[in-house]
Amino acid sequence: MVSVAIEDIKYIPSVSLAEGDALVVVDMQNDFMPGGALPVAEGDTIVGGVNHVMEIFHAKGLSVILSQDWHPMGHLSFASAHDGRKPFDPFEAPGIGPVLWPDHCVMGTHGAEFHKDLRSHLAHAIIRKGYRREVDSYSCFMENDMKTETGLDGYLRSKGVKRIFTCGLAMDYCVYFTAMDGRKKGFEVYYISDLTKPVASPEGSITTALENMTRSGVKFIKAEAVK
Ligand code: VGL
Ligand code: ZN
């Protein structure tokens, strides 16, 4: 397979937002910020930019949806739920993997709250995911069993949405799988590449995400090109 590097990505020069567009902001929660339980390097640096695009969508009356990773204690994606396993150990089980995580985004805790500066009041809907102990959910559309819907698809369809714009954390997990599922479900998908940051584990996760998104027709755009 041809390898795709960040430098090779072609960006859509500009998009005028219109009816039928929605913004899906993924997992901008304390545990994914520096100092959190599953920190994404520089995750906090995109908060201002994310707020700005949320404001643009909101001002045009377009749907703004936030997702929240929302796990019960003892979730099977946590290394602590498996004897002798450490965070980031490779692990494959139905609905879980490819690695185990530190305990993070436990429902109702500070770590699961949105970053304090995120203008979360601009969201019209919040999708919570990963709340079943045995199954993880990277995508905001589908749980990792690849059959259980989160409800996002129904929400978007009932609002007449055709194009989704996505950003947030983390680039190589929840934003990536959301973009892929958006394509599978027939939406035009724009991935706002400067408003996302990767976990970068295991090695190669970023390249895999870029390759698969490119192949499935996800469009790449920078925040300043969304008008
Ligand atoms: C995420 C790993 C585990 C994400 C959530 O939001 O990308 N990654 N849970
Ligand atoms: Zn999680």
| Helical stretch tally | 4
Number of strands: 6
State the end-to-end distance.
35 Å
Q: Into which percent range does the helicity of residues fall?
A: 10-25%
Tell me what the CATH architecture is. 3-Layer(aba) Sandwich
Radius of gyration over C-alpha positions, nearest whole angstrom? 16 Å
Q: pLDDT below 50 for ≥5 consecutive residues: which ranges?
A: none
CATH superfamily: Isochorismatase-like
Bound chemical compounds: pyrazine-2-carboxylic acid, zinc ion
The major β-sheet equals:
6 strands, parallel
Structural class: alpha/beta
- What is the average of the pLDDT values? 96
Main-sheet strand order equals 3-2-1-4-5-6
Give the SSE string: EHEEHEHEHE
Number of domains: 1
CATH class value: Alpha Beta
Task: Predict the CATH topology.
Answer: Rossmann fold
Q: What fraction strand?
A: 15-25%
The global form is globular
